[in-house]
């Protein structure tokens, strides 16, 4: 008898142990499934939304995937917009209109309580998807819970799960859904902060750019206006020589404004991807000679020597856009003339280096501080020079445009400089 009781007790103990182990395995399996769902849904949100700030899209993804780990008759979400609310309900099982009306009432009450604002009478756009509504189903809401979506401290939406069966949802189900929504909220909040910072940065750049454009246009316009005023009021009776000088000043001012406008237009084309390079057989020697002749008078006026040297190995003709490359030379040479003192030297050199032609413009000007050389080819950046040459201004767009032109030829561009000794601006063009 004792043996039988002992055996029965052992069997009972074994069964209890097995039952406990089985329950533990079930719990572990459920927990693993929840974790797997959490990882997969967060991955899907990241892949589908990317850098989107669309709250509705995030709620759509979560609502559309809930059936993977939780039972529900209806999953709904409300998105809070500036002028209205958007309510979407997805039915997994048929319910009645009474169920849907009760669900909407509960959601609006919850949203109002969370926001501290009455949303019950707010304009509401409603949509419904999933299985059909069946009036024959009269069961009311038995289980129900909400998960709020908060972005940057502001209530942006509400996700709600409901079922006709009472006591259906466990704390673990609500916890994992809360974690998913919360992580999505944090991601969007961080992205909003980045977007806001970037908008502030762009706004500052726009303000600086506008100020710079106004300044650059004001100087030549003011010069033209003053000369015309002198003529109009007849305060001066210029000699033929004076008249020629005044006309020359007006021409220089108008040219300066035209160059500024052209720089802005060219840069805008680069930004929009509409700056076309038209390559055809061209002679680089002729382009260099043309630019030397063009700037010779300006160089002579400043008593600066202008010279060029083209290696015999440079091909007579190869494929490039001669007009665009002239713009590069214009920028290099005009800058060199601005910052090279009287008696200085500016030299253009071109040589063949493997399959590339290396072109350089060297000057004996004031040079550029080493720490500022990194900003040379950045948009809207203008390098501060010596006070002696502080009157020499510019948009800072010329080098950016030159960089775009050279890189559109599959070449490279750069510069080296030593203060008080001069600078070398160079670029390469492929010949094959």
Topology:
Layout: H1 2-49, H2 55-65, E1 74-80, E2 85-91, H3 97-115, E3 124-130, E4 143-151, E5 154-163, H4 171-233, H5 240-272, E6 280-282, H6 284-301, E7 305-310, E8 318-320, H7 322-339, E9 345-353, E10 356-363, H8 398-408, E11 413-418, E12 422-430
Parallel strand pairs: 2-3, 7-9
Antiparallel strand pairs: 1-2, 1-5, 4-5, 6-8, 9-10, 10-12, 11-12
Helix pairs in contact: 1-2, 1-4, 2-4, 4-5, 5-8, 6-7, 7-8
Name some characteristics of this structure.
alpha+beta; Beta-Lactamase; Helix Hairpins; 3 domains; 5-stranded mixed beta sheet; 12 strands; elongated
Description:
The structure is a single chain. By secondary structure, this protein is of the alpha+beta class. The protein folds into 3 domains: 24-195, Beta-Lactamase; 197-272, Signal transduction histidine kinase, dimerisation/phosphotransfer (DHp) domain (Helix Hairpins, Orthogonal Bundle), CATH 1.10.287; 280-430, Heat Shock Protein 90 (2-Layer Sandwich), CATH 3.30.565. Helix content is 51%, strand content 19%. Strands 3-2-1-5-4 form a 5-stranded mixed beta sheet, with helices on both faces. The chain has a 5-stranded mixed beta sheet with strand order 7-9-10-12-11. A hairpin with a 4-residue loop joins β1 (74-80) and β2. The termini are far apart. The model is unreliable at 383-393 (pLDDT under 50).
